[in-house]
Known about the structure:
single chain, mainly alpha, Rossmann fold, two-stranded parallel sheet, 11 helices, metal ion binding
Amino acid sequence: DPxxxxxxxxxxxEMIFNLADTHLFFNDLEECDxxxxxxxxxxxNGQDLSTYSFATDGFHAAASSANLCLxxxxxxxxxxxxxxxxxxxRVKELYNTYKNNVGGLLGPAKRDAWLQLRAxxxxxxxxxxxxxxxxxxxxxxxxxxxNVLVTTTQLIPALAKxxxxxxxxxxxxxxxxxxxxxxxxxxxxxxMQRFGRxxxxxxxxxxxEEEQAAKKHNxxxxxxxxxxxxxxxxxxxxxxxx
Length: 242
């Protein structure tokens, strides 16, 4: 039912951007997108943020007036970069606090709307998410395996999306990479630098870009295009073929 799917998708999109704007500073950070949550942490002086006022620290006005984050490589001053780092630190704290309790972040009214929407999407997609989560959960409970997410979505909306689809438990925030600015292949390179060349990487996806990037780095690619692919993946993990 394509029209129904579009309607549900638009409702979820609205929820994602609402969460990103309300709780994850997307209004401030949209032009200051990072590949990874810790990319600006070196500018953070570690000060206590419990009484810090993000609304009045002057960050947004400075960012919008000077186009500080345009791709020309112009960077703000030390003070401004510190305020940027504070925002990413707070996002990380919120993600880690609410990754298994998104309803607590949304509040009662939005929580009910969210649960209703999630149920409708699961019904329409024949439990696609539940099936995908089975495999992700097996991987994340293994002592020698991790889930890493590479997405073309900007980092902040991607984090909102992960939270709203209850994938926060499967993906530690440090394992989420946004390819918006640098492309998936460059993200793969960063991941290989981080985890080393001695580990086995398996790329799971449905797009040409990640398949080509996987091929370039000699990583096996597991294509997901139907429910049977998800079930096969789950079986391979359960039987420890993978």
